[in-house]
Amino acid sequence: AAMGNQRLGITATAAAAPSGRLREEAPTSKWAKQRERLAWLFVAPAIIVVVLVAIYPLARTIQLSFTNARMGLGRKTEWVSLDNYRYIFNDDQWWRSLQHTLIFTFVSVGLETLLGIIIALTIHSNFKGRGLVRTSMLVPWAIPTVVSAQMWKWMYIDVYGVIPDFFGKKLGIMDPHTALLANTKTALLAVIAVDVWKTTPFMALLILAGLQIIPEDIYESSGIDGASKVRQFFDLTLPLLKPSLLVALVFRTMDAFRVYDLVAVMKGASPDTMTVAVYAQNMLVGSQRLGRGSAVAVVIFLIIAVFAFVYTRMIDLEDMG
């Protein structure tokens, strides 16, 4: 009878809880309260670290964005309200850098996702030397960004660069004397190509992890029913791969939107390829305007927060579905 009453209580709690989940109740016994205090004690160091390295700098940046703070000693800092934000939104260079950043983000992430799926499907199949291929695939991603950016910068040079020589003299599909980074029309695309080369292995690795948790028996069953490989991909692989794809897109989109080192090494603060991160650094260090640079950082943070919110909502809807 006691067990029956216990089951009845659990059933009633589950029925009353939203979405069929058990409602968590606050601990009432002395033992439970001690465990809760112990749990907070264990979590406290991590919370302190997060406050010191994330929350406090963010709060300080937001505070500085409303001032006319500048780098250097002896400069008086005054409250200027929204003047820094008005300056940013009236600056044509900000809008151009935002446009460059959005183009860079969507084009690079889209190509990396597409190529990542193709590479992941290829190395997921059984063939000789698969382990060696998987290891060599990670080489571009393992190279430091500054090193790969400088390497590709030399490869793009029209005088002795490998890229103009191969595609110009060998294949004849472009002028061998074309300076891809110096050309306004091709500079941003050249930077995007380097990012795709470097970061596609990262996307392929995340997608491969998602492929490996898909059970093989569903493919055997669908094959018996006469489903082709193409239909298996669209009806089975792609839907089951959505959670892994969304997680990969979250990381990659936020990383691409705040890109700095690749653009700074290859083109510096050139208006042709300036991103919002380069714009912020140029405002902070180049112009030494700490207040305006902090305002730019806050705007970048808010845009990335919107991306993160949209992706997490998509993940939540996927889990509910």
Percentage of β-strand residues: under 5%
Secondary-structure-derived class: mainly alpha
Largest sheet: none
| Average residue pLDDT | 84
Which blocks of ≥5 consecutive residues have pLDDT under 50?
1-23
Q: Count the beta strands.
A: 0
Q: Which shape, going by the Cα principal axes? A: flat
- Please count the helical segments: 14
Helix-strand pattern: HHHHHHHHHHHHHH
Could you tell me the radius of gyration in angstroms?
A: 26 Å
The span between the termini is 38 Å
What share of residues is helical?
A: over 70%
Q: What would you say this structure looks like, in words?
A:
The protein has 321 residues and is mainly α. Helices cover 73% and strands 0% of the residues. It has helices at residues 2-16, 30-64, 83-89, 92-124, 130-137, 139-142, 145-155, 162-170, 187-212, 217-224, 229-257, 261-267, 276-286, 290-320. The radius of gyration is 26 Å and the shape is flat. It starts with a helix and ends with a helix. The model is unreliable at 1-23 (pLDDT under 50).
Helix-strand blueprint:
Layout: H1 2-16, H2 30-64, H3 83-89, H4 92-124, H5 130-137, H6 139-142, H7 145-155, H8 162-170, H9 187-212, H10 217-224, H11 229-257, H12 261-267, H13 276-286, H14 290-320
Helix pairs in contact: 2-14, 3-14, 4-9, 4-11, 7-12, 9-11, 9-12, 11-14, 13-14
